[in-house]
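Teaching soon. Invent one.


***
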Amino acid sequence: MLKRTFRAFESRDFRLVWAGACTSSIGTWMQKLAQSWLVLQLSGSPFLLGLDAFLGEIPILLFSLAGGVIADRVDRRKLLIGSQIVQMCCAFLLAGMFALGVVQVWHILTLSFVVGLAQAFGGPAYQALIPSLVRPEELSAAIAWNAIQFNLARVVGPVLGGLALTQLGASWCFGLNGLSYFGPIVALLALGARRIPERTGETMLDSMKQGIRFIRTQPAMLSLIVLAFVMTVLAIPMIVFLPVFARDVFHQGPSTYTLLLSVSGAGSVVGALLVASLSHRKRQGAGTLVTLVALGVFMTGFSLSRNLALSCVFLFLAGAALVATFSTLTSLVQTIATDQMRGRVMSVYNVFFRGGMPIGSLATGTLTPMFGAPLVLAANGVLLAVLGLSFFASRRKLASM
């Protein structure tokens, strides 16, 4: 089992990309911690906290389809490098504004949108690149390890970010994030040239339509995309609104927010490791629905708990279930997609998966002042559990995959 868990690292290119992405993700979570806390501190508004998350994700909804077409037409490596450079410049700009003491909330919101725009074009290219780095039988494990690096960063990044924020100041969090982008840039340059698909003469709109037609011919794919969208609408606000729980439920400061974020990240790493070790098992569709129901139960428990230790237990389990669900969903989508269509298929998947994040964040930010974050997120958890059970009953083909 141990060999199966780590077999994706037999590929030198995957090791390079994984290490670069992990470095960048650590920097990103350092910035996320500082940015979320400072938006709440500068504005005092949970709505603006949700709006910041909304603006960071809405470009995914608006531009990912175009990004997927481009990812199928150009060298995906070069497209990714361009995306990383834009995000790096935004981080350094924010660091400079904080250092000079001129930053305002609207500056943060604007740069969040620009970063999201860069990710709208880089995301499909990255997801389409991963299958070319490993053998087909290693793909599920590679996707799980990609989730592991992201969530390992959710453990390490907030700890480092919390230290930098409290000891050095916010500008260090943003500056170190800017430096972290050199990791993936160097890794991508070390890959060398990748295969560039042949030009077909199709317009961008025709290419988008072709990708959508492909998805419509795959009934299981439609179910997976619907699940991805609803899961992110309901589950991701649990992460976005952790500062509200730290401040308003537990009446603590940045250290408790760091603790909650790190516990969630630790659970996510465990969940992804479990997926990597079981990547050879059949009926992954049924496993996805089981973890989705578990995610709803654990989210509800976290939202209703008022004991910090018990809340951390529920949050750890919810983090594990969230990433296990995400990893198996992504693996199933990648398995169905062909290489010629992968950029477009993953862009559509990104539109619904990432597009659900701003909608969920904005909706939760709107409802929280009226009902309170615990009640809103508890309702989200109940809806997730009901969704998983209903798919078991009505989507037999998905459950049998």
